Amino acid sequence: ALVVQRRDKFPSFNLPRRVPTDLKKPGLRIVVTGGAGFVGSHLVDKLLARGDSVIVVDNFFTGRKDNLVHHFGNPRFELIRHDVVEPILLEVDQIYHLACPASPVNETIDYLFGISRASLVSSKVFLNKSHKTNVMGTLNMLGLAKRIGARFLLTSTSEVYGDPLEHPQKETYWGHVNPIGERSCYDEGKRTAETLTMDYHRGAGVEVRIARIFNTYGPRMCLDDGRVVSNFVAQVDGLVALMEGEHIGPFNLGNPGEFTMLELAEVVKETIDPSARIEFKPNTPDDPHMRKPDITKAKQLLHWEPKVSLRQGLPRMVSDFQKRILDEK
Ligand code: NAD
Ligand code: UDP
């Protein structure tokens, strides 16, 4: 019944691959799922700047049109409102699969943080949506990659290491994740996404790449994101190097510069308001005690390493936040 239903819905599923002539432009044709989000929109800027054609597929769950508005009118740019949990037909050369409700604040229960997020959907929706997007969304994007012979890149996360028993973490570490905890929807969702990615590579010959991103911050980050900062958006260069290179990964993309939460709070205080008072609150359940990427592999094989230190990067993000808060008023 499923096959019949799918044939009705997408009659071209069973046709051989065909690239419409009007899409044959110089440069690559690239899909970025989650391209209206924080990392995705910076990636889109980079790809368009180098001459590629970019289709963003995003349901605006946490992303914003504002992040892409400067590309409206560019004939090489297209924005599709679509939930990747549903199948989609496109013809492209590469797929950057970033779509995912990514912030842990979104995944856990609001009262733990005491943060009011009236504008965001209820946490239950997030919990369900995170896993569903990681599993069904990744499956659909891999099915698409298989059908059209596109190269597929997954943005996985340092969360696959859970609360690590190995420090720093190399890509060979299998992780220490609670499968039934409050943040497992994200951790286990991404672990499944990695498994699916390797299944499609081994089983269907899809060309795949896996990046494990460590906490990244910078302009355009969701105002109530709630993640701990550690790396500036230079991560995007790492994603492109990975997509263009010969190595499947996984690769850790992160900043090995380690600091305690108190050290971080001091830098934030210095940057924003030296008279601010630091408050201590209980941590969220299953939050990892330590995290630090070993980036030897990315340095050697992708020639990538982070460029912006916390003290350089934080003021740039703060000025972006201040501007946006003022604009919202
Ligand atoms: P973000 O929330 O800013 O971006 C995610 C984007 O995906 C948003 O635009 C959102 O609307 C879209 N999206 C979510 N569910 C969707 C769905 N079902 N269909 C279509 N679009 C959907 O987050 P980000 O920080 O830019 O993260 C991008 C990717 O990088 C995510 O896969 C995330 O897991 C990964 N990552 C980010 C970090 C980080 O620190 N920023 C760390 C590790 C991994
Ligand atoms: N899919 C899609 N676009 C495509 C091809 C596939 O969204 O161009 C989806 C498809 O609906 C399915 C998933 O990707 O749910 C996996 O596809 P695949 O052909 O690998 O799996 P199958 O349907 O054969 O189990």
TrEMBL record:
Cofactor: NAD(+)
Family statement: Belongs to the NAD(P)-dependent epimerase/dehydratase family. UDP-glucuronic acid decarboxylase subfamily.
Pathway(s) where this gene product acts: Nucleotide-sugar biosynthesis; UDP-alpha-D-xylose biosynthesis; UDP-alpha-D-xylose from UDP-alpha-D-glucuronate: step 1/1
Subcellular location: Golgi apparatus membrane; Golgi apparatus, Golgi stack membrane
General function of this protein: Catalyzes the NAD-dependent decarboxylation of UDP-glucuronic acid to UDP-xylose. Necessary for the biosynthesis of the core tetrasaccharide in glycosaminoglycan biosynthesis.
GO biological process: D-xylose metabolic process
Entire-sequence positions represented here: 60 to 388 of 388
Domain of life where this protein originates: Eukaryota
Protein name as it appears in the record: UDP-glucuronic acid decarboxylase 1
Signal sequence range: none
Topology in membrane: Single-pass type II membrane protein
Keywords attached to this entry: Decarboxylase, Glycoprotein, Golgi apparatus, Lyase, Membrane, NAD, Signal-anchor, Transmembrane, Transmembrane helix
E.C. designation(s): 4.1.1.35
Primary location recorded for the protein, binned into one broad class: Golgi
GO cellular component, one term: Golgi cisterna membrane
Record-annotated NAD(P)-binding domain positions: 32-236
Catalyses which reaction(s): UDP-alpha-D-glucuronate + H(+) = UDP-alpha-D-xylose + CO2
GO molecular function, one term: UDP-glucuronate decarboxylase activity
Coiled coil: none
